[in-house]
Write a structure and sequence with these properties.
Layout (H helix, E strand, L loop, with lengths): L1 E4 L14 H9 L3 E5 L10 H6 L3 E3 L2 H7 L2 E3 L6 H4 L7 E4 L7 H10 L2 E4 L14 H18 L21 E5 L3 H12 L3 E5 L3 H10 L4 E4 L3 H7 L5 E4 L25 E4 L20 E4 L2 E4 L9 H22 L1 H7 L1 H6 E4 L2 E2 L2 H7 L6 H5 L2
Helix pairs in contact: 6-7, 10-11
């Protein structure tokens, strides 16, 4: 199979879809890999590194898309890429379709095969290709929350962990999954007073057992959230419904009840955000303020730490990419139920319910496509 690795063109996105080590594994398996010149420079991988691993370097993104059977990248295609995608071309990347109708309709129109990292799901309900970036984003959420608490950025002027004789900041984490757990772990390690919310009582029991004493647990509902937001300095949104839009758990009318300089970090922004006032931002302009509340809503948070993020992501994606290349997407998805759940759009048909429901689009069961 011919694999293409284009340079990411989303603003401030420095990750790359395949490392030189991944290229070597692909070429050892008999595949041809074309890498766009400069694709890995943001992660300190250079053209010569890829060439030594067996890749062929192409100067432009247009050439990479034109030659490849499968495109392996990190972030969803953005508008300049839409028309470069060929009919029947396999795209293996993050898509987050439910938060972006133009992208969804463009991929339907291009009749591409869109296999989304974020919905690859194992039989035990784990999301192996989302977990690495969730770990990075969760830890970064606390870092960014601590940073924007500083008065220079409009925050309350608090040190997250306080000092002896001065109380620490209070951090609320909504969602006890991978992102929330990592955020709470970082915040507690920095000495903050942390509360983590989740609807799953068993999950809260687990977190209560493994977290340090400065982490409390709470079951969320509208009343408890409304009361809680009045008292916390950093609020991290870490909820996820795989493949679907995130629920709006903090509404516009709650903002005036918060303390001036409160920091909201919405890690769910890729899925539309879990705060009603959230809108995607970039690393170049990461925050905005509404009612004296700071919103940090960068849609590709791990892109700020591309070396860590690229290695973590490609460690997880490479085995699946090899299956797709070795067997072809249909056979690989028929034989691997996790990959099958990654299929979102296939040759113009929406085959993932969360996407069809988000935009009221016709839904075709993926089995009908695979069994043709």
């Amino acid at each position: 199979m011919i694999i293409g690795v284009p340079k990411e063109i989303k603003p401030a996105e420095n990750r790359v879809g395949m490392t030189p080590a991944g290229v070597l594994e692909m070429t050892k398996a008999g595949h041809t890999v074309y890498v766009q010149s400069g694709a890995g420079t943001g992660t300190d991988f250079y053209d010569e590194d890829y060439e030594k691993a067996g890749a062929r370097i192409l100067p432009t993104i247009e050439e990479v898309y034109a030659i490849a059977d499968m495109i392996v990248k990190v972030k969803e295609p953005i508008e300049p890429e839409y028309k470069l995608i060929k009919e029947n071309q396999l795209l293996f990347t993050y898509f987050h379709f439910a938060s972006c109708e133009p992208l969804t309709k463009a991929m339907i129109e291009q009749k591409a095969i869109c296999l989304a990292y974020e919905t690859v799901e194992t039989p035990d309900r784990k999301l192996p290709l989302l977990v690495p970036m969730s770990e990075v984003a969760g830890r970064m959420a606390t870092q960014e929350g601590a940073k924007y608490l500083e008065r220079f950025y409009g925050g309350r002027g608090l040190l997250l962990g306080g000092v002896p004789g001065v109380p620490p900041a209070k951090v609320l984490v909504i969602g006890g999954g991978v992102v929330g757990t990592q955020a709470a772990k970082m915040a507690s390690g920095m000495g903050a007073d942390v509360t983590i919310m989740d609807l799953n009582i068993d999950r809260l029991r687990y977190l209560d057992d493994v977290m340090p004493e400065n982490v409390n647990t709470l079951v969320p509902n509208e009343m408890t959230i409304r009361e809680a937001v009045k008292d916390f300095d950093v609020i991290i949104g870490a909820v996820l419904i795989p493949g679907a839009k995130a629920p709006k758990l903090i509404t516009r009318d709650m903002l005036p009840t918060m303390k001036q300089g409160t920091v909201l970090v919405d890690v769910a922004i890729d899925q539309g955000g879990c705060f009603e006032t959230s809108k995607p931002t970039t690393h170049q302009d990461p925050t905005y303020i509404i009612d004296d509340v700071i919103h940090y809503t960068v849609a590709n948070m791990p892109g700020a730490v591309p070396f860590t993020s690229t290695l973590a992501l490609t460690n997880a994606t490479l085995p699946y990419a090899l299956q797709l290349a070795n067997k072809g997407w249909q056979k690989a998805c028929n034989e691997n139920s996790a990959l099958k759940l990654g299929l979102n759009i296939v040759k113009g048909d929406v085959v993932y319910k969360g996407v069809s429901e988000a935009f009221d689009l016709p839904y075709v069961p993926v089995e009908e496509i695979l069994n043709k």
